[in-house]
Amino acid sequence: MRAALEQAREARRHDEVPVGAVVVLDGQVVGSGFNQPIRAIDPTAHAEIVALRDAARRVGNYRLTGAVLYVTVEPCLMCVGAMVHARIGTLVYGAPEPKAGAVHSTMRALEHPALNHRIEVVGGVLEDECRVVVQEFFREKRKTNAEF
Question: 71 exposed, middle or buried (CB, 10 Å; 0-12, 13-18, 19+)?
Answer without folding.
Answer: buried
